[in-house]
Write a structure and sequence with these properties.
Layout (H helix, E strand, L loop, with lengths): L2 H15 L5 E4 L16 H9 L4 E8 L5 E3 L4 E2 L2 E2 L5 H4 L13 H8 L5 E6 L5 H17 L8 E5 L2 H10 L5 E3 L6 H6 L4 E5 H6 L3 H7 L3 E5 L4 H10 L3 E4 L2 H8 L2
Parallel strand pairs: 1-2, 1-11, 2-6, 6-7, 7-8, 8-9, 9-10, 10-11
Antiparallel strand pairs: 2-3, 4-5
Helix pairs in contact: 1-9, 2-4, 5-6, 10-11
Bound molecules: magnesium ion (MG).
Length: 255
């Protein structure tokens, strides 16, 4: 076993003995459950995450052609490209549970009803300029909803320029880079204070968790959906585990 792996395991054990429990974040709301009423990124899925008392709930945002921020995973909604469509066009279709595509304001209205952390994924738009406009629209909405608060909201993004912008303008917020292609030192040197990498990245680089922690960065990992992977990232000592299976994770963490 390499020295790096040993040091990562030692750090994981250290954090466990410190009583630092991992936090559970539902991926795209709590939607992969038995209740047919739930669709990913729907208000109902967020409500369910809140009702289950989860630490956080992740969701994705895009900008329409008429400058409305909507909550949706993909860049399209039933084949309609969000960034070239007006919001009204998106209302032609419904989510599987019958809801219309939520605007960010509607989503934040629901989010404001419980302490569940709102983990906002700012999706890269066609250009960096458009991604930064989306970021600023999100911040306006959070401010208007009295949710521009590091204890209520954190940011994640695959867009490095978005993470850099947040680092510069909102340094007090958790701000995690998603792509998984940069080591913690490189990300930290850009002022970005966290990483949220797919768990397969940490399998390739198990020492990155301890190295990020040594720099004071927060560490999240996503779509950890089976017990073996949950046990693995728990052992590494990540701060947040994002999953489609929050109730399985509760069991694994003994919560
Ligand atoms: Mg997402």
């Amino acid at each position: 076993m390499s020295k790096k792996i040993i040091s990562a395991v030692v750090m994981g054990l250290f954090l466990c003995f410190q009583g630092q429990a991992q936090k559970i974040c539902a991926h795209r709301g709590f939607w992969q459950c038995d209740e047919a009423v739930n669709s990913q990124n729907s208000l109902a899925s967020l409500r369910l995450a809140q009702e289950h008392g989860l630490w956080g709930s992740e969701f994705d945002v895009h900008l329409t052609a008429d400058d409305i921020v909507v909550v949706n995973h993909d860049a399209d909604f039933y084949g309609i490209l969000i960034h070239t469509s007006e919001y009204e066009d998106l209302l032609t279709y419904r989510l599987p549970n019958g809801e219309t595509i939520p605007t960010l304001y509607e989503y934040l209205d629901q989010g404001s009803l419980s302490p569940c952390m709102l983990v906002m994924e700012i999706k890269p738009q066609d250009t960096v300029a458009a991604s930064l406009i989306l970021t600023q629209r999100c911040i306006q909405a959070l401010r208007a909803e009295n949710l521009l608060d590091p204890s209520r909201v954190m940011f994640i993004s695959f867009s490095y320029p978005v993470c850099e912008w947040i680092a510069q303008h909102l340094p007090e917020f958790d701000n995690q880079y998603l792509e998984g292609d940069k080591d913690p030192e490189t990300v930290h040197a850009s002022g970005i204070n966290g990483i949220d990498y797919h768990y397969s990245v940490f399998k390739r680089h198990p020492d990155w968790v301890a190295r990020a922690h040594a720099l004071g960065m927060s560490v999240n990992t996503w779509t950890v959906d089976n017990k073996a992977d949950m046990e693995y990232v728990k052992g590494l000592g990540v701060d947040v585990i994002t999953t489609n299976k929050p109730l399985v994770l509760k069991e694994v963490l003994g919560l």
